[in-house]
Amino acid sequence: MDIATPPKKTLWSRARAMAEQAPPERNRYVDFLRAFSILAVVVGHWLVAAPYMKDGAVEGGHLLGILPWTQWLTWGFQVMPLFFLVGGFSNGLSWAATRRKGGHFTAWFAARIRRLINPVLPLLLIWSLVTLFGTQAGIDRAVVKMAAQLALVPVWFLAVYLIVTALTPLSHAAWQRFGIASFFVLVGAAIAVDVATLEFDIPYVNFFNFVFVWVAIHQLGYAWHDGRFAAPLLWAAAGLAALGLLVGFGPYPVAMIGVPGSDLSNSMPPTLALLALGIAQTGLALALEKPARRMLDGLTAWTTVVLINGMIMTVYLWHLTAFVLVMVAAWLLGGIGLHEAPGSAEWWLARPVWFALYIVLLFPFILLFARYESGGKAAEGDVTHVRLILGMLMICTGLAMTAAISIASPLGVTGVRLWVVALPFLGAALVGFGPAARLLMRRAPA
Description:
Elements: H1 11-21, H2 28-48, E1 52-54, E2 57-59, H3 63-66, H4 74-77, H5 80-100, H6 105-117, H7 120-136, H8 141-152, H9 155-166, H10 168-178, H11 181-198, H12 209-225, H13 232-249, H14 272-287, H15 289-296, H16 299-309, H17 312-332, H18 345-369, H19 385-405, H20 418-430, H21 435-443
Antiparallel strand pairs: 1-2
């Protein structure tokens, strides 16, 4: 008697099964905005990076500097505010549920750290090996550093998001007690920071806006979840008007991301202009919620969102690695495709071909590493507050330094800044993830 072989499950069939199991009360638009915001960032990165051949060498061109008019496009492609809006919605929902069940902050936040750091660790490990072998092979260390830093730039965002998430108990308590006033207090703080920076030239104070600006948008996520975000089109208009005034009459540049050669960046750290953009995007996104949710009631549209969300962090973390590999291949082939001047008609016409190549190179990374988005298995035992905060600080410092100074070192035998690479791994161990964490748990006193 022949036994029929069960059909092999595809990525689509698995996503469809998950989509069908989603509870009816789930706000599918939250998942849609999460996927949309990350994909917009990916497309933006692939578009603004414009390397080209000059005198037989590859020059790292930047489209916003080459074609200043493209800086206006960042008002649409700089959608990180939407990710923090979604974060506020999701964190508020999850934290409130944890409180109702009598749960504790340590377990709640440790699970969130593990979910964010788990997909990052393979990326750091592989690029550390690439950096090591590239250095040993005699490749110019400056070239190795440029490749590693470009590929690992996306990790900076996770450091900021972890800090904002860590503040959820405080920010949520402030929302429950003061409502929308908690948002405007943060707006006032962001204004004060920009005044101190731009008018009085006080150094380093602008870094506080990593908290003030992004937590402010995070507060609007609470308002959305509680159904207290009224008149979204009015918010969109107010944010857009404020942004126009800040750019038109203030000191803020048009571009919502950093531009080489610019004296001021609206994103590193975030400024009042980026906060205004975030308000405008929040209002517009929530004004579109009802028709979008009707669209997402369709199984095909919802399955697509589920499929993308199941691999979205992998796409975000590895998309510039795919870009680097395509550029290396083009350089090895004599600079094929890199002789058109960035911004020329030929350059624009070639973009679909380049994007197709990026996607083809990205797909194997999705197949290999999307599994790490589950968050991994936690070690048995409790995580203390001290270990949790210390672990978070080590992870955030390591990720920030990875993006800021690169894991590649101009000195040393290995060519790798081992301390930068080690920090996220050690931090993950402290919060109860991985073999090192299980060793720590066994040694920890009861």
